[in-house]
From TrEMBL:
Residues 10-30 form the Flagellar basal body rod protein N-terminal domain. Residues 188-231 form the Flagellar basal-body/hook protein C-terminal domain. It is found in: Bacterial flagellum basal body. Keywords: Bacterial flagellum. Its main location: other. One of its GO terms (biological process) is bacterial-type flagellum-dependent swarming motility. Belongs to the flagella basal body rod proteins family. This is Flagellar basal-body rod protein FlgF. InterPro entries: Flag_bb_rod_N, Flagellar_FlgE/F/G, Flg_bb/hook_C_dom, FlgE/F/G-like, FlgF, LlgE_F_G-like_D1. PANTHER family: FLAGELLAR BASAL-BODY ROD PROTEIN FLGG, FLAGELLAR PROTEIN. It comes from the Bacteria.
Length: 236
């Protein structure tokens, strides 16, 4: 029982670390960490005194919201956020939020994310620009100007508890009922925020978890062998 519980927790930790590594090059990605706690009571049975056995269980995921490195790209439609904020994009049931500012224009002039979701203005409407017009200029406040005329303003908001937002896939977040507030940071044109995943740390963690998992598997296998031999002897 102890070995199996250990394997479950280690598998969960491995999944989290592997997902972090898989997104090391994803713009604006925030790393996750598994939160563990010691179980006070279990239904475990063992030859040893159960009071000497300590079990842990995962109680959830914590999002590490530290800002990733900002790198200049030179693409006028790329934006990075400096500060605690999120860009509003169109979701299936209302606004969703992202830190990935790799935007493009569709043939109709709609400003969209890399997977085609409409970027929303501060008023909640999709942003539409003239695809044949001059190169847009994006100010530190998110205002988009074309030939000196404001054509829209990127909707950027902040949350009182950003770590309580929920990941919904495709590098998007759901507000989980939180009311968005005013963004007090800076929008940087021609730049992207990188992932805050530390690849060396995550790779080292994966190696440690893999070794611990192998050891736990040996414990389970050894216990099974002992039980099998005990059954065989009792049957003689």
């Amino acid at each position: 029982m102890l070995g199996l519980q250990t394997q479950r927790v280690l598998q969960r930790r491995m999944d989290v670390a592997a997902n972090n590594l898989a997104n090391v090059a994803t713009s604006g990605f925030k790393a996750d960490a598994l939160v563990l706690e010691e179980a006070e009571e279990t239904q475990a049975h063992a030859e040893e005194d159960p009071r000497q056995i300590r079990f842990v269980r995962d109680i959830g995921i914590v999002h590490q919201m530290e800002q990733g490195p900002v790198a200049m790209t030179g693409n006028p439609l790329d934006v990075a956020l400096e500060g605690d904020g999120f860009i509003m994009v169109q979701g299936p049931n209302g606004p969703q939020f992202t830190r990935d500012g790799a935007f493009t224009l569709t043939g109709e002039g709609r400003l969209v994310t890399s997977d085609g979701r409409a970027v929303l203005s501060s008023g909640g409407a999709p942003i539409v620009l003239d695809p044949q017009g001059d190169t847009p200029s994006i100010g530190r406040d998110g205002a988009i100007r074309v030939a000196g005329v404001e054509a829209g303003r990127i909707g950027v908001v902040s949350f009182a508890a950003p770590g309580a937002l929920s990941k919904v896939g495709d590098n998007l977040w759901d507000a989980q009922g939180q009311a968005p507030g005013e963004f007090e940071g800076v929008v940087v044109q021609g730049a992207l925020e990188g992932s805050n995943v530390r690849p060396v740390v995550e790779l080292t963690r994966l190696i440690e978890i893999s070794r611990a998992y192998q050891n736990a598997a040996k414990i389970v296998s050894g216990a099974d062998d002992l039980r099998q031999r005990a059954i065989e002897r009792l049957g003689r």
